[in-house]
Amino acid sequence: MIDAKFKWKLADNASSATVDNLEKELGISRILATLLAQQGIDSTEQAKKFFEPSMEEIHDPTLLHDMDKAVERIEQAVEKQEQITIYGDYDADGITSTSLMYETLLSVGANVNYYVPNRFTDGYGPNMDAYQRLIDNGTQLFITVDNGVSGKNVIDKVMAAGADVVITDHHELPADLPNAVAIVHPRYPGSNYPFPDLSGVGVAFKVAWALTGEFPIEELDLVAIGEIADVVNVTDENHALISYGIQQLRQGMRPGLAALMELADIKANNLTDQDIGFGIAPRLNALGRIADANDGVKLLTSLDENESQKLAKEVDQANKERQNLVAEIMKEAEKQANSSANQQKKTLLIVGKGWHQGVLGIVASRIMNETGKPTIVASTDQNNPTLIKGSGRSVDSFNLFNALEAHRELFTTFGGHPAACGLSFDQGNIAPLQIALEEEANQQKFDPTVKQTLPIAMQLEPADVTQQLYNDIQRVAPFGPGNMEPVFELNNVKVVDVKTMGQEHQHLKFSIVSGKENLTVVAFGQGNLATLLSAPTGQVNLAVKVSLNEWRGKKSVQLMLEDLQINGTVIIDERTNKLTPQLFSSSDYYIVREPRLRDNIAPHVAPGYTLSIEEAIKTDFSGQRVTLVDCPSSEEMLKQIFTEDEGEPATIRLLLYQRKSAYLAGLPTRNDFAQLYRFIYKQKELKWPMQVKAVSNHLKINMDRLNLMIQVFSEAGFVTIKDDVLKFNEPTNKTDLTQTKRYQKQLAQYKVEQQLLFNDAATVAKWLLEYLNLE
């Protein structure tokens, strides 16, 4: 059995009366009515409001703290033509915030420029050197977007230097705030703003609205990108802002975005929040990670189509470089994560040399998702080899910020929140940090073996998955925290046509049988499942999202794999006649019959995971991954290893390396025995084993079979071998040679090889599961 990675939690049954009413009154499908009811929508009025959000849901910007002060100071600067600089941030939220504020200030006649800091030279948030350069160049008013509240020391110095600062931000508020002209923030203590979860671009939008006195509908496309990229709560006014923003994006007004969407193969008329989250946002984020985020602002604000095409190609190229960097670092990081030492740990600290700092957070996130462990991925700094810089990501059940906050003395710099952090530390603190992480995991009672929950909206049959279902799901979009995209459970499906995709075979594509046409399932980053799904298996259960694929103008519904479960033991066929170290990289139990072979592979396997037959017979493999390195000597040996009173192994992987094959050697026939008997009777004596090859050639019997026959004759008393001389003995009574122990041993080896080595994968798996009662 392959257990699910997550704990699937089926949603509570919605009220049948509510679902019936919504289905009837709105004329919608029962599945859509159920999805609405699960969101707490129990009336047609609420449903219509959800389907078509109103501008009235978007709150008055003047309710935000210090908005009046911010607008007054900006208007003063515009009137006096003071130099205004927008100080942005290098992620997608920061880039869209900067673009929105820049366009707004240009529209009211401001003397404005912008500065998006460099991740590596400026760092996150206010940087005094950068501010000073801007002040020296004439800036009199700074407006921060998507940053500022954590920069008290710098902001206070800027104010003291004679420039003013208006902060617009949404990040966590520290206890000691900057002494700025205004701090516009949705969660400012004591303020009356009714919704706390705007992103940076959402706050910038509110400033633009308050400043111009008009609802800036033309900027909603930027709001949708920034809010989705920052994974804010998609409820309340965010639901309306993002919904209208997606409508704006579908009209394709910005040349830069149109060019970028073409390169990303995104169709504007069908654009969804998924296209933003997985297509547009990562490309903008890539600039801040490995290039210059200022180019992102140029792209979003340019009206020149030629310039937009050029910038879009640069942005797309930066994203490709980012992907390549992540792939390269992932290979090394995964090796560390899967080392025998790290497999025993609850947390992971992975340190490399010369890794690109801009993508370490992505790598940490992927390693965390693969292992279920809080992960810090770090690397030596190019300019200071003794300094380690990195990023951390954590699961919901482990507060990474609190864990590291308790050990601040280990860090040169540190900041973050419960799920993520950025940090730097001296190379000498690697070991102390590893110890501290494990101690904090114990302190927080964190157990990486406890599964994270995957909410399941409902169980479906493959026949339910149609384009109409996709259309119904999109009616409850946009998705994000507070309105998560529904995941559906499909049970006992038949999997066919398993293929890997990508240069590194890192992605997976397969089909499930559904009526006349099979359904395609895609699993990004899960190419490692190909072997499991290609193997003959028991029941396969899937947790999936529903998406739409468009190829050459033809649309078809497809499923995106979130998780899977395979009931029953999975037989993995990797039979080979050549063993390499790579075959022993997975965390399996390796059962090896031949002692010399066992000694050879032991250095490549975690201690305690290389087992002799005797050790294997004593081991309970319930739920474990098991590899049979060489072929057992008999079918009975298989039953001794996998006894019926134990639980089922998750997988049995077959390498079945065999240096010499009993099956290929063949069993001696009655005629073979008679021919050899007559030859030895005639010769009386032979030099043995010196003459074995000559005898083999003379009798035309292969040497392996000939040696077996001599051993059988020896057991029957027909011959004796002493001092390298074989002598014939006259038998005293008749003997059935096929009943000798040696012959029976060879016969058992022959039979098990015939079953396991000389049949196709499906036949081997079927026989093995039936023989061991593992179905």
Automatic annotation (TrEMBL):
Annotated coiled-coil segments of the chain: 308-335
The entry's keywords: Coiled coil, Exonuclease, Hydrolase, Nuclease
Start and end residues of each Single-stranded-DNA-specific exonuclease RecJ C-terminal domain: 571-768
Residues covered by the DHHA1 domain: 350-438
Keyword presence, DNA-binding: no
Family the UniProt entry places it in: Belongs to the RecJ family.
The protein's name: Single-stranded-DNA-specific exonuclease RecJ
Species per Swiss-Prot/TrEMBL record: Limosilactobacillus reuteri
Gene transcribed to yield this protein: recJ
